[in-house]
Amino acid sequence: MADVKIILPDGSAKEYAAGTTLGDAVKQLSNSLAKKVLAANVNGELTDLREELVDGSEVAFLTFEEDGGKHTLRHTASHILAQAVKRLWPEAKLAIGPAIDKGFYYDIDMEHTLTPEDLDKIEKEMSRIVKENLPITKSVMSRQEAIEFFKSKSEDYKVELIEDLPEDAVISCYAQGDFIDLCAGPHVASTGKVKAFKLQSIAGAYWRGDEKNKMLQRIYGTAFEKKEELEAYLHMLEEAAKRDHRKLGKELGLFVIKEEGPGFPFFLPKGMALRNELENFWREVHHEFEYEEIRTPIILNKQLWETSGHWFHYRENMYTTIIDEEEYAIKPMNCPGGILVYQNEMHSYRDFPLRYAELGLVHRHELSGALHGLFRVRAFTQDDAHVFMLPDQMQSELMKVIELFDRIYSQFGLKYHVELSTKPDNAMGDDAIWEAATEALRNAIEAKGIPYVINPGDGAFYGPKLDYHIEDSLGRTWQCGTIQLDMNLPERFQIEYVGEDGQKHRPIMIHRACFGSMERFIGILTEHYAGAFPTWMAPVQVKILPISEKHVEYAEQLAKQMHRDYVRVEVDDRSEKIGYKIRQAQMAKVPYMLVVGDKEVEEGTVNVRKHGGDELGSVPFEEFFNAIKIEIKERN
């Protein structure tokens, strides 16, 4: 067995012969690779590489370029937070404090109710702990020793966690100064390494996520290796707050969610204008890719959902009702309805591939605490499609779907990465079917030359899938599109076609949605564009601003002409100063503002301004009108 094993950034390991020291092992790596090494396994113990390993070595110390490094740094920051809280409120009891995406948190049980002002006090104490540069050391205990130790500290939550572990479990703890915490690690070498951190908010959290348990106080924070990275991240959060689709949705008059229907959004006229443009674009692309559009009912009987498997795998998320003493469900997904459309007639192999697309309204029960604007709702429209095909068409059809996704995302300037999600624990069907479906998805994405990563166990219960994570203008990622290959539902519904041999066969089925949810995609685009949508999408494309009352008639004539050609236009005929009207139109993020006064009325021109402040000057109205019609039609 090797004395030293270096764990590389991609998760692979490089082993060294017995007797090799850690320093010698690192010297054998290239300098660029060594700087990215996350950890080393030395004689069975995981060691963090966080500082200079060898005197005279070119290797300085770990940089946190890799997520694993940031995760370790933030995990240590959570311990520093806990230590600071215990110094300030010694009676506080600690629950759990993991690193999470973009930060960390710690759940705490204490009599004192934390306020935002307390975060400043805790941060100052954390800074003192960082300056003390306390070494972080690992120790192990038996299960019983650990129980007795944390009982002596009155840390009831730690004791409960340990008691849930097996009798023979070896418990690891990490100490920094006089503070010791139950933890699996790893951590950086000392508290002094955590130099850029920020506490962000306070929230309530039930112990172990169970509402029957006590409500604890959760402190959220984040940490980075460098102060510049922290400042850039906090700036991004400020920008994200300005772009919050809930805030912009209200300001721009796009949608509203009423207390009479939590999780059920109302789209207002301007929101519908935006939504209709997206649907028009969706229909054009699907026409180009030779899909036929269908619509299926939103309520279907229990037997259908039992056949599909949703009744057994998804029942807790479904709304149900009784009709004529029979149980029905509001559809949470569109696929069973698409299968019923397929079954409406017997198909021949000559009919394939069959591509059915549907903008299908679905309902899913979400807990009230999970609802979030348009991002998490209870009623939404999936841009679904179901492709029925022959086995030898599987590769080409998957590649066509991948092309369609790229066509749609590129329209909005959205980059993306792809995950191949594999068989979950609650999957239907045998392993052979799953392996064949997974391999087909892998072959298709590789044939298109698109990089992907494996997401183990996150497939749908009826088949593996490719999940698309799009990146917005702030660098945030959102899981939107999904391509699911299904050999199970055709079997469960016993759908058939007549093959070339005159015998009946089972088709293969693709489920796919590109926007994912129309509502959620609108929310994402609202934040991506900060409400300043491209002209073709904008709820109001032109705002005409008459300088005075005597110019209103000319403005309304222009508006009527544009309205007849489906340009979305408004006239601001209020008795306000022109500077105020321009500022208001800018705040409403209207792409074009047309200022009209005496000169414009006399010459048949308009003075054109663009959102953002660019003044394009005076042009003949017909010239502007023709240009904007082309811009809208071509979706520039």
UniProtKB/TrEMBL annotation:
InterPro entries: aa-tRNA-synt_IIb, aa-tRNA-synth_II, aa-tRNA-synth_II/BPL/LPL, Anticodon-bd, Anticodon-bd_dom_sf, Beta-grasp_dom_sf, TGS, TGS-like
Keyword Ribonucleoprotein recorded: no
Domain Aminoacyl-transfer RNA synthetases class-II family profile per the UniProt entry, residue ranges: 269-534
The keyword Aminoacyl-tRNA synthetase appears for this protein: yes
GO MF annotations in UniProt: ATP binding; catalytic activity, acting on a protein; metal ion binding; threonine-tRNA ligase activity; transferase activity; tRNA binding
Residues annotated as binding Zn(2+): C335, H386, H511
Signal peptide per UniProt: none
Annotated CDD domains: TGS_ThrRS (cd01667), ThrRS_anticodon (cd00860), ThrRS_core (cd00771)
Residues of the TGS domain: 1-63
EC number: 6.1.1.3
Subcellular localization, as worded in the UniProt entry: Cytoplasm
Alphabetical GO biological process terms: threonyl-tRNA aminoacylation
Pfam families given in the database record: HGTP_anticodon, TGS, tRNA-synt_2b, tRNA_SAD
Record key words, sorted: Aminoacyl-tRNA synthetase, ATP-binding, Cytoplasm, Ligase, Metal-binding, Nucleotide-binding, Protein biosynthesis, RNA-binding, tRNA-binding, Zinc
Cofactor or coenzyme needed: Zn(2+)
CC annotations in GO: cytoplasm
Cofactor binding summary note: Binds 1 zinc ion per subunit.
Catalytic activity of the protein: tRNA(Thr) + L-threonine + ATP = L-threonyl-tRNA(Thr) + AMP + diphosphate + H(+)
Gene3D superfamilies: 3.10.20.30, 3.30.54.20, Anticodon-binding domain (3.40.50.800), Bira Bifunctional Protein, Domain 2 (3.30.930.10), Threonyl-trna Synthetase, Chain A, domain 2 (3.30.980.10)
UniProt family annotation: Belongs to the class-II aminoacyl-tRNA synthetase family.
NCBIfam families (UniProt xref): thrS (TIGR00418)
Subunit structure: Homodimer.
Protein name: Threonine--tRNA ligase
Taxonomic source organism: Veillonella tobetsuensis
Gene: thrS
